[in-house]
Amino acid sequence: GQVSLDDAALLPAERAEVLVALDDALNRLAEIDTRLGQVVECRFFGGLDEEETAEALAVTSRTVRRDWVKARTWLARELEV
Fold first, then answer.
1. Which of 21, 25, 38 is nearest to 73 (CA)?
2. By the 8 A CB rule, do 26 and 39 touch?
3. CA–CA separation, 22 vs 26, rounded Å?
C-alpha cells in the first residue's frame, strides 16, 4: 500500500529502535553464550555461509547450523513485543 509522508517520517525512527533493540539483544546473547553471538555476527552481519563461519570460529558446520537455530530462536523471543 501507499505510505503517507507522515508514515514515512516515522519509518527511520522505528528502524533505529529495532536496530537498538537488536544490538541490545545481541549483547545479552553474547554474555550468555559467546559463540552464539559470534555465529550471529558472522552469518548476519558478516554475510558468511555455514562453512565460512565454521572455519572462522574453528568449529564444525553442524555446530554452526545448530548455534544459528538456537541464536535465532533466542533473539526472536527477546525481540517479541
1. 25
2. no
3. 6
Q: How far apart are CA 66 and CA 11, in angstroms?
A: 34
Q: pLDDT, tens digit, for every residue of 15-40?
A: 788 888 989 999 999 999 999 999 99
Give the pLDDT confidence score for residue 1 in this predicted structure.
58
Give this prediction's pTM: 0.77
The secondary structure of 44-59 as a DSSP string is IIS---HHHHHHHHTS
Please determine, for residue 78, whether its predicted confidence score (pLDDT) is greater than 80: yes
d(CA 11, CA 38): 29
Q: Give the number of C-alpha atoms closer than 13 A to the C-alpha of residue 64, restricted to the C-beta side.
A: 21
The phi-psi region of residue 70 (left if phi > 0; otherwise alpha if psi is between -120 and 50; otherwise beta) is alpha
